[in-house]
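Example (one chain per record):
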Amino acid sequence: MSIKKYKLFFVEDDMSFGSVMKSYLEINDFEVTWINDGNLALNKYKPEIYDLAILDVMLPHVDGFTIGKHIRKISPALPMIYLTAKNLKEDILKGYGIGADDYVSKPFDTEVLLCKIQAIIKRKVAAKTEEKTEFIIGKYVFNFPHRSISIDGKSQHLSPKEASLLKMLCENQNELLSREIALQTIWGNDDYFNARSMDVYVTKLRKYLKEDTSIEIKNLHGSGFILSVE
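Predicted structure:
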């Protein structure tokens, strides 16, 4: 039986150090996407692909903090580790403020970094195991793994995107779900055509939930959607 290889998004401009680090992590059973340019990293990052990001702070064109903010905007739960040659308190606080899980100063022991990565991913996997899979929406029961919503003994099967979108709405019930976050997470980008596609899926979800008048999926123009349940 094959062992799952966790995927790392690694941004480091030092070619020698980056190459060595990538090889070391791959030897330890990680899949590593290594980017050596900050601007390129913004374009290469895709949500729902990686298990952890390792970001150097000092990068050409775009610094690691900016990349971290970009990642955090579209992947709120992705763990991040910052690498830096500077050990300034202001930078450390800035990194944690963005949502970093750890901050490692160069030079560092690669075995220590490996242990940090493994510990963070272990916590993430444990949290995901406990992740909620069934939701009560008014009179409906939504089972995400089965991709079904049920009411009064009747069940409706959902497509993968319908189920993923409804899950995000349920996780943010009575609160705003950002259009951008939903599009980046489910469709991979927030271009015009995907935005129109998502609007069609929202219309379908409204149809599926129409038998309970206490439920409404509200559209906040330009901002996102709210699954409102009275």
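Caption: The chain has a mean pLDDT of 88.
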